[in-house]
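User: Could you write out the 3D structure of this protein bound to heme C? I've included everything you need below.
Assistant: Certainly. Input first, then the structure.
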Amino acid sequence: MKGVVLMLAGLLVGVAIGALAFSFASKKALPDASPSPAAAPMASEQQVAKSGPAEKPAEVDESKWKELPGFIGPLRPVKAPADNPTTDEKIELGRMLYFDPRLSGNGALSCASCHNPGLGWSDGLAKGIGFQHGELPRSSPTVLNAAYYKSQFWDGREPTLEMQAKGPMTAAKEMNSTAEKVTAVVNSIPKYKEMLTKIYGEANFESVAKAIAAFERIVVDQDSPFDRYVRGDENAIGESAKRGLDIFTVKGKCTSCHNGPNFSDDKFHNIGVGDADRGRIEITKKDEDLKAFRTPTLRNIALTAPYMHDGSQKTLRETIEHYERIPKEKEKHPNLSALMLDFTLTEQEKQDLEAFLHTLTGDKRDPRINVIPDLPPVAPAK
Ligand code: HEC
Ligand code: HEC
C-alpha cells in the first residue's frame, strides 16, 4: 500500500491545475491578512513556506481584482516562524505524526480523529469525543487554514501551531498522554527517531509538536470560487451568491469581524452564543472578554457543521438567523459586541447569503495533504 494516494471525499476536485495560490506574494499589494493593528511580527519573505500547490500558477490579470470591504480576498502563502521553516521532509514527518494514534495515552486517538480530512478537517460533531469516549467542552474547529490565525483555540490561549499541538497530546480529556510518554514513543520508532533527530537535533515532545505544525502549514486552502470571482472571473459564482456577497459586506456587515483574506479579524467577540462557557475571560481575566471567542474563518464553512464553539447551531441558515435575532434581544446578553447590528433579512436574502458562504469552499488544495501516510513500525524486540 506504499504511497497510495487517497482522494478523500469532498476534497480535491481539480488537482492543482491552474492553481493560483503562489502568485499573490509578488502580485498586487493587498493588505496583510487582517487590518488588525495587533498583528504579530511576520517572518521575512525568505521564510515563506512552500505551501501552495507545486504547479506554476496561471497568469492572472491583476487589474481585474476586486477590492472588497474588509479586504476579503485571496490569501497569501502561509508564513512559517523563523525557528521552524517549512521543508518537504518536515511535511512528510509531520503528516505521519498527525495521523499516528500512538501519540495518545491509549493508542486510540490521533489528531485526525477529531480533525479528519474527510470531514472538513473537523469531526462533524457538536462537541469533540476524546479519551475513552468522553465529551469535550467545545467543538473541534477545522485545522484547514488554522495556519493563518494569529492565535489558536476558540479562546486564543496559544499563540502558535507549535504551542497548540502540545495541548491535545497531553490534555487528559483529549489524547491523555504526557510529554515523557510521547518522547519515549517516538524514540521507540526508528523512523521517527531518525527523522526527528536529523531535522531538529532531538527526538522529543518539542520536536514532535514542531513537525506537526510544519505539516499543518500546508493544510490550507487558498482557492475557491469566491477567490476566482475576486480575481476577475465573473462566472465563478452565481447571481444569488453575488447578492449574498453584498449582504455579507453591506447590509449584514459580517465583515466587521469576518474580514481579511481568511475571514477572521483574529479578535475576540461576544456574539451571544452559549451559556456556561465564559470564553476568553478565563485567559485574560478582563470583563470585556466575558463569553468572547475568536472570530473563526468562514473558508470551507459549508464543510464543518455544526457551528459555533459549542456546536449548538446545526446549519448555516441557523447561524444567519442567529445574527438577525440576537441584537433584538440584547438585554439577555451582557457584554454583547457593539458590532452586532440589528437587521432583518428577507427569505431571498437569507438564501443569497447562504449561497455566498458556499462559494468559500476550496477545491484546489495542495495534493500532499491528501496522502494518508503509512505509519512506521516500532523497533523489533531484541
Ligand atoms: C479528542 C478530539 C481532539 C483531538 C484528538 C485533537 N484535537 Fe485539536 N481541537 C479539539 C478541540 C475540541 C479544539 C478546540 C478547543 C478549544 O478551543 O478550547 C481543538 C483545537 C485545535 C486547533 C485550533 C484551531 C483553531 O481554530 O484555533 C488546532 C490547530 C488543533 N486542534 C490541532 C490539533 C492537533 C495537531 C492534534 C494532534 C496533536 C489535535 N488537534 C488533536 C479536539 C481535538
Ligand atoms: C461581532 C463580530 C461578528 C460579526 C459582526 C459576525 N460574526 Fe460570525 N462569528 C463571530 C464569532 C466570534 C464567532 C464564533 C462565536 C462562538 O463560537 O461563540 C462567529 C461564528 C460564525 C459562524 C460559525 C463558524 C464556525 O466555524 O462554527 C458563521 C457561519 C458566521 N459566524 C457567519 C457570520 C455571518 C454570515 C455574519 C453576518 C451576518 C457574521 N458571522 C457576523 C464574530 C462575528
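The longest strand covers residues 268-269.
User: Perfect, thank you.
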